[in-house]
Task: inverse folding
């Protein structure tokens, strides 16, 4: 990947100098353990350090999860049934076991079948995602029972609201552990840009201090030095001023302001909007949405709609969370390292 690079550019490798461009997915046939849950492939995510040699396996990446199902089909790791191949609407559902979180993800997407019977994921389509150029086929990701992905609990601290460094926070674990803090508590404007976050004196340092304190209370580390680099992620929330958007968020990922929104941050935020008493709930612009309606989240790159099914608020059982993304194979080849 080109790490470690003290200049933070990863020019001597495949990385792009940003946390979102320094990642690796490792895909293999499902183990006996994951096959017992119906999984067809195992997926391990690695967050690669940029200026360091650190490789963090502590959490999952929702965006890269979208590439796993199509890759599994294209690489021949998953064989489709005759029924799936002959169906008029040709789609495949690949059940994925994420080893980082020990959770199941169902990936559903269109396929194309050649006259010789070979199968590959369909790349072309009319689905668009904010922050991604062009259009592609749509991939539906269903995160099954995603709560407690890393900590074993929806609310890892046991509280709907905690206070860290004088700032209110809701700590929640859906897909990955997350921390949500109000922009007004910091205080900064809700629509602060990633560049403004980086340039505001002391802001990133304070957010990291809050993140470290929260991680310890969430049971993810005993000391600040033991806190993983990639999780929990800390997010700044505010009430949106755009019509049709339910809540606005700015995410910090591995010490850098994210240019868009990590999928797992979207999963956690969508669930948090439905929890009365959370720090998130008062900032939601529309709290009267129907149960099946997605939560529309505003981020620096546009919006993301996330569906979240909670069995009932008292038990706080999250049955599934759903997002739509796109992904396609760009190349095959060998990577040379030294």
Result:
């Amino acid at each position: 990947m080109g790490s470690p690079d003290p200049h933070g550019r990863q020019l001597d490798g495949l990385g792009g100098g940003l946390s979102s461009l320094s990642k690796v997915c490792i895909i293999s046939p499902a183990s006996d353990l994951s096959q017992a849950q119906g999984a067809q492939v195992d997926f391990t995510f690695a967050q690669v350090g940029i200026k360091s040699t650190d490789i963090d396996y502590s959490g999952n990446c929702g965006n890269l999860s979208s590439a796993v199902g199509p890759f599994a089909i294209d690489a021949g790791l998953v064989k489709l049934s005759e029924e799936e191949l002959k169906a008029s609407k040709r789609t495949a559902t690949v059940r994925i076991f994420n080893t980082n979180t020990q959770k199941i993800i169902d990936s559903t997407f269109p396929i194309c079948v050649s006259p010789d019977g070979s199968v590959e994921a369909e790349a072309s389509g009319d689905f668009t995602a904010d922050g991604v150029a062009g259009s592609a086929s749509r991939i539906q990701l269903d995160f099954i029972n995603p709560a407690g992905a890393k900590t074993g609990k929806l609310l890892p601290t046991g509280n709907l609201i905690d206070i860290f460094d004088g700032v209110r926070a809701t700590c929640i674990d859906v897909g990955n552990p997350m921390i949500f803090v109000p922009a007004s508590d910091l205080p900064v404007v809700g629509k602060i840009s990633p560049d403004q976050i980086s340039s505001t004196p002391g802001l990133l340092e304070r957010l990291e201090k809050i993140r470290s304190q929260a991680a310890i209370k969430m049971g993810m580390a005993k000391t600040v030095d033991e806190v993983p680099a990639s999780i929990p992620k800390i997010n700044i929330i505010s009430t949106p001023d755009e019509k049709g958007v339910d809540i606005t968020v700015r995410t910090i990922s591995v010490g850098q302001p994210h240019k868009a929104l990590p999928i797992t941050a979207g999963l956690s935020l969508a669930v948090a909007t439905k929890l009365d008493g959370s720090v998130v709930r008062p900032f939601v612009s529309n709290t009267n949405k129907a149960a099946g309606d997605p939560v529309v989240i505003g981020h620096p790159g546009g919006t993301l709609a996330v569906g979240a099914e909670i069995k009932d608020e008292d038990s706080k059982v999250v049955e599934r969370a759903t997002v739509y993304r796109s992904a396609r194979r760009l190349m095959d080849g060998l990577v040379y390292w030294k």
